[in-house]
Amino acid sequence: MSSQQTSEHLVHVPLGERAYDILIGDGLIGRAGGEISTRIKGRKAAIITDENVGALYHGPLMDSLEADGFDTVSLTLPAGEKTKSFDHLTKVCDVLLEARIERNDVVIALGGGVIGDLTGFAAGIVRRGVRFVQIPTSLLSQVDSSVGGKTGINARQGKNLVGVFNQPDLVLADTAVLNTLSEREFRAGYAEVAKYGLIDKPEFFDWLERNWREVFSGGPARTEAIALSCQAKADVVVADERENGRRALLNLGHTFGHALEAATHYDSSRLVHGEGVSIGMVLAHEFSARLNLASPDDAKRVERHLKEVGLPTRISDIKGDMPPAEELMKAIAQDKKVKGGQLTFILTHGVGQSFVADDVPSSEVLSFLSEKLER
Amino acid sequence: MSSQQTSEHLVHVPLGERAYDILIGDGLIGRAGGEISTRIKGRKAAIITDENVGALYHGPLMDSLEADGFDTVSLTLPAGEKTKSFDHLTKVCDVLLEARIERNDVVIALGGGVIGDLTGFAAGIVRRGVRFVQIPTSLLSQVDSSVGGKTGINARQGKNLVGVFNQPDLVLADTAVLNTLSEREFRAGYAEVAKYGLIDKPEFFDWLERNWREVFSGGPARTEAIALSCQAKADVVVADERENGRRALLNLGHTFGHALEAATHYDSSRLVHGEGVSIGMVLAHEFSARLNLASPDDAKRVERHLKEVGLPTRISDIKGDMPPAEELMKAIAQDKKVKGGQLTFILTHGVGQSFVADDVPSSEVLSFLSEKLER
Q: Chief subcellular site (chains A, B) (predicted)?
């Protein structure tokens, strides 16, 4: 296993005065204190986590921080998407202020995307910004939500509709924690890994088709896939930090995916985010083929691979009843990727050839969805 | 009155891609639609105001916006500091999302500092940022809170402890609205005008000592004093947008002032912000003299002028009982101008010669306050 332990990667995100490092490797939680203390001036650290992750990793993280001289305070929240709420945001801010976390002190998100998004938002608004470290503990958050600085909470009108751009000061992606993920959760994160190939890295998608079993079983291939995903996302973010153009490509599969999540009321027993993205990416390729922008063979190839790894690829793969197409359209219209009433979609000319289309007629989307729901 | 109407000022705040204009003049609300539509792409406008201001100016503003083709939605909140809360922030976000305000649409703060701070915060976090215009309707907000991009709400631990930096896209300071302010409210705003002289513009303080009556009675001297104040603040903000150094000078009088506000539980019948700043500025000059940094004559000169215009200048000017010095110190320690446990204060070498001191012993502050409270 020594090759696994030594295959540590560093991805630097060069965002000027907001530049930061992403470390990817085995056992980073156990030496978090050292990595953080070399980068942060303050000596207070607040750990925000959830019940599931906290039970496994809060102790080791706190020990490491205290060994390096940090005073720690901790808050453990319920696990699950419902935690990304105004109520919990208020609670996190209150805990940080009560602990007198100051601008040079650090707030640490120990958990998946929910904890990262909520904590990053709180760290961005308490005292108008304190230091912030992400320790993502799911594959999804390691390759996606912990990179790029988008933070936020959900509103009753939709997901992630309230938040700030807040780049972390450091990301520690400890690959050892992935060994305790359920197969389903790992697969859901894999959908985002595959997404980077589909956006603009066809050779990465080829590689995943050949090596996905090694990625799932752990070891150097997994670490490499995570590092390559972080690098791919970092490249896009550096080119367009505030999502005025190119960054929208990261939403490949997400407009459909978010609508499906909304339609299933964010019930994780029916659909988790990565699963929605998986179905959404297949739909985006099929919709592109329907508009004669791409070959139907590409859509079939994408579906074949995602199905092979065990991900859902069709709306009918979702358990339970789905609402009519009109309801899905409502969720799409409320999605924040809408400008001046026109629909913006990420479409594709084929595997690794996606692009931003900002003039997609909603009537086309509606009839496409209606067909898909009939099957 | 024609000279009054033509004395319009424009202060440009050159913050790169966050650059914006401040227009200062008579009757700007009546032509807000035109000024906004030339600068904003979207065609939806949300007006956030309070009961008092809304009763006078909401109609004219809405008419102007609709005449220029905006669809408007409005929210009227209770007047007063208590509105700067998480609950009202949630409410504003909900209204903006329900109205489907998108990134290029505009949110307009029509009111004083409370409405401006709350609305600017909401506009900065809904969809991670939509367009934002300030129409400040108090002297205080025209010369201070609407310039510089600090937004936020209060927490139970203190004022303005949660928020974001969010520069507006435009500020319209309509001087006509100042005619409806109470004398007390105008005076409170005047404390911040005088502050700019005390920070680093001794010649402006001289000018105010000679011309304050004209500033109070309206006309060109008033518009000029407002424009000069906006320019003074803009200069400091441009030099240090995120308050890492020089910007802290704007807190002259504010550390003591905030503590007094906290001690009177933000009860505006006892003390409003500008009054706290007035007393705080005198205290800052007296404290500087006590530390042998400035002449006691400067403190006397500052007190004489502020007293002449009718502002409170001593803790004993505040009606009702004050807590002991230890309680005031607690509020000071929770103030966000604290780094690594040491007290940061704005001290002075004399009128117009203030500076940031980041090593003020809290024991000195405590004994100074104890003396002041005994009188």
A: cytoplasm
